[in-house]
Amino acid sequence: MFVLVNGQAYPLPESVTLASLLRSVSPPAPFAVALNEEFVPRGTYEDCLVRPNDRIDIVHPTAGG
Amino acid sequence: METQAIQDELILYGRRFKSRLLLGTARYDSPSLLADAIGVADPALLTVSLRRQLSGSKESGASFWNLLRETKRTLLPNTAGCLTAQEAVKTACIGRELFQTNLVKLEVIGDEVNLQPDPFGLVEAAIELVKLGFQVLPYCTEDWVLCRRLMDAGCEVLMPWAAPIGTGQGPRNVPALRELRQRAPEVPLIIDAGIGLPSQACQVMEWGFDGVLLNTAVSRALDPVRMADAFAQAVRAGRSAFLAGPMTVKDFAVPSTPEIGRPFVSDPSVLLPLVASEH
User: Fold this and answer.
1) Domain boundaries in chain A?
2) pLDDT tens for residues B5-19?
3) Set B90, B105, B131, B250: catalytic member
């Protein structure tokens, strides 16, 4: 199965938790996550299941005005 | 003087700041220029944003995060780029977790040409965000009814634009901005966007606005650090002038040097009407 991580196809052998996916992707800290355009609080990563074709956005602090 | 300075702190949602300048962190040529500008401007808050990781970007990543932390400034995450209330609320929630703050600079853009705030989306998002416990600083226009709706929604601070973002035009609708100041005397009003020169920042502070948020005017100056210093001085000067209470503007000349006793006057009676008008 594939999911989209920041718009890029990311292969997964099976449905996994968001926590597991993030361990695999290993984004640099700090980051926050949206799944299918919905914010996912950090404390719920272990309970959140990632399904085929899900869209995961991992965002970081950046400059802003 | 020290007592007066303490009493004149900028208070936003109960947080007290000595500085009345808010500084954006975008569009600097290098992180070191940003750091130096922050050091010189001594801003109350730094606006920040969130994006996907961009490889090679100087404006994100671990180094940018470390720079922010080393400044020890209060961070103000924005919802830049959001075109709907729903997008803005989601972005604010992400920003709250990322930056560990309930503060949010709420932006809902209604026109992609001039980046004008969407008044309808702004109010809708503000209502929701206040319910979620956010301390909302909305980037808005000077429209009085919009500002009143935002205050009704629970916004304790308003950030009306001077002109479209990044234009540096200075205040475009002076009468409406000054009317807003008069009609909302107790609400902290931060002029956000469109300021291009320190004189413009000084001007709005003289009118009684509580602070100025700058980004492009500093970051895109030829010498951003020097410009940050110029703006810091201008904001302080404008605030001092406001507190000092400017003189009343008059239609006709009033001599500042006493007329009575002036030598070489052959007929002092010609001055009597002028002397009488001073009483």
Assistant:
1) 2-59
2) 557 999 999 999 999
3) B105
Q: Is B105 one of the annotated active-site residues of the chain?
A: yes
**ipTM confidence:** 0.94
CATH code of the domain occupying B2-251: 3.20.20.70
B27 in contact with A at a CB cutoff of 8 Å?
Answer: yes
CB contact under 8 A, A32 and B50: yes
A63 in reach of chain B (CB within 8 A):
yes
Whether A45 contacts A17, CB under 8 Å: yes
The residue extents of the domains of chain B are 2-251
Phi and psi of B47, rounded to 5°? -85, 140
With left for phi above 0 and alpha for psi between -120 and 50, is residue A62 left, alpha or beta? beta
Q: Give the type of residue at A29.
A: A
**Tens-place pLDDT, residues A30-43:** 999 999 999 999 99
Contact state of A32 with B54 under an 8 Å Cβ cutoff: no
- B166 CB neighbours in chain A (<8 A) are 65
Mutation target among B21, B30, B49, B220 for the A interface, most CBs of A within 10 A: B49
Q: Under an 8 A CB cutoff, do A28 and B62 touch?
A: yes
For domain A2-59, the question of CATH label 3.40.50.720 is answered with no
Residues of chain B with pLDDT under 50: none
Exposed / middle / buried, residue B266 (Cβ in 10 Å: 0-12, 13-18, 19+): exposed
Q: Burial of B26 by CB count in 10 Å (0-12 exposed, 13-18 middle, 19+ buried)?
A: buried
A24 shares contact with chain B (CB less than 8 Å): no
